[in-house]
Structures are given as C-alpha cells and as structure tokens.
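Hey L., structure's done. Input below.
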Amino acid sequence: MTHTSLRPHRDDVLLAVISVSAGLLLWSFGVHSNGARDVLPAWAALVPLVVLGAMELLRRTAPRATLIVGTAGMIADTFTVGNLATLLIFTDLVYAAVVYGSPAMARRLPIGTGLLTVAVTIGSVTWLRTPQALLLGLITGVVTFGPALTGATLRNHREAAEAARLRAEQTALLAEMDRTQAVMAERARMARELHDMVANHLSAIAIHSTAALSIDSPATSREALGVIRENSVQGLAEMRRLIGLLRDAGAGQGADAVPTLDGLDALVEQARTNGSGSGLDFVLEDLRPPGAALPTPVELAAYRIVQESLTNALKHAAPGTVRVRVARAAGLLTVGVDSPYGDGPGPRAPGSGAGLVGMRERAELLGGDFTAGAVGTVWRVRASLPAEEKVVAG
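Output:
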C-alpha cells in the first residue's frame, strides 16, 4: 500500500481530534467509566485513549490493523479507571472495519461479535448468577455486535447501489453498441443498394465512352452516345428512387423502388444492349414455378445478385454468351450466372471488388450461401437463398 493510500481522510482527522479532545475533557473532570482502580494511576487511562484516537486516522485505509490495535487498547483500558470516549472510539473502529474492510471481514465480523455477545451473556449469568450479569452481555452487544451489524447494513446498501449503477452503465453501453451496430448495418445496406443500383449503368457508360473515344467512327460514336444517354437516364432514375427511400421510407415509395425477379427480362435485355459492342450475348433461364411467391428480401437479394453479376460480365467477361439461371426447389431459390472467362479485345471498366463482397453479404444476411470463381474458361456465380417466409423471418 502506497503512502498516498495511507493518507488520512479529512473527516477521520476531524473525528480523531474531537474524540481525543472529548476524552481529555472527561478525564480532566474526573469522569471515568470503570470506577476506581488502584493498580494503575488515573493518567494511565489516557494511553488507550490516545492510541485508539490515532487509529481513527487509519480507519478507512487500514481497517484490519486498526481493529486489532483497537481491541488491544480496549482490553488495556479495562485495567485503568477507563474513559467513555475510548469506548465510543472502539465502537467506531468496529463499524469502520465492516464498512471499509475486506468482504471476508465484513461477513465474519457481525457473526463473530454476535457469538461473542451470546457467549459473554451466558458466561456472566452462569458465573455471577445475578440479574445484573445480563448488563455485561448487553454492554458487549452494544460495543461490538451493534456497530458491526450497522456497518454490515450500510455496506450492503452501498454494494447494492453500486451494482445497480454498474448494471445501468452496462445497459447504456449495450444500448450504445446496439445503436452503433444498427447504424453500421444500415450504412452497409445503403452502400450495397447504391452500388447495385448505379454500378451497372456507370459501367456501361464507362465502356461505351471508352469505345467512342478509341474508335474513330461516326456510327460507333452515335451508337455509344445513345447507350450512354439511356444508362444515364436510368441511373438517375434509380438514384432518385433511392433518395426517396432514404427521405421517407414509410411514404409508400418502397414498393416502386424495390425491384422483383419479374424484372429480370428487362435487366437481361438491357445488359444485351450494353454488351453488344463487346461481343457479349445474354440468355435468361427462369425455371421458377409460376405463381410461387417469394419473401421480399429474398427476391431483392436475388435480383441484385443477378444485376451485379451482369455488371461484372460487362466489365470483365470475354466475348461469348452469359447465361443467367434462376430456379426454386426444396425450399431454396438458386441463382446462377455463367460468363466467359478470359481477356476480351474491347474496352473494359475497372472494378473494385465491392460487388463480390456485396453479393456475399446479401446471401449471408438471409442465411444463404454464395460462391464465385473461375471454373476453367467460365466465371461462375452461385447463390442459394432460403425461399420460405418462416426461414427469412427467423
């Protein structure tokens, strides 16, 4: 224990000064607690008084030591004329030992003083065999058990209040963590939506603008500008839908802004138009049973996975046929996109890898599986999503 931790509290200093001063005043007036004693002179009662008064300075920082010294001083006081202030100081040291001592001391001291009180009462009655013997047991209980019980009650109240404070802080911390995670999840969702909604159009714009700049042909330039304008208008419309969702998600705009798998034909047709200059063709195989409804989150995730796969094909695929396959069986919706893998002769748009991350996140958030990679000369994307409403809701 450092010197700083042993520094007395100012309240303890004041308590020690008042206690010793009161004891000196009682002694000067000849007020004693033990009556006449012929063994030791009257001034000997001041020694336990000063010793116990000094222990008041350490009642918070060294409660065990003060209790031991205080007990020894109290025993010594019984051989002198005694001082009432010494007795009162000892009761405070017992109280402080329970309040500021170790948890083990706080548990054992009330039990020990209670047993001591009972033992003294029984022993005094048995030895003296007078009703006045009960007074000795009562005094023992007041001096030892009473302060210990009071200290234990106060300590329990303090510990309960501290536990309640810690629970409140932990609850607030968990609430803040939940809020932060919710904000991060919402930002990630917005990032995926923004990427999937505009990446396809911007990729087509980048590819056809590069072609218009690199090929000196009025017909090619005019065709590229037409594709650029069409994708610019569609991308702007998608952005407006997203902004409308962010401004007022409950205003009924969600149904118009969330695409469905019924729009795959238009999506594939748009990709066919954008990829015609790069030697790409797109084929859709929709093997879903007619009239089978899908949960909205699953349908949106499947649409976005197909959309991002087509965007990646426009950026990186070699000339050939891109095949999109959607099927539903055994409670799963499967999405597959196969595109030619290799170096293409035409212009390509750069990629950041965020698309693959977004597709994987969409599948995993719904409890599905996602794989993407090259298999020979084919770049294969596969996603399996739970198609049952009860699975998604859980």
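Confidence is low (pLDDT under 50) at residues 250-256. Strands lie at 280-286, 320-329, 332-340, 369-375, 378-386.

-- N.
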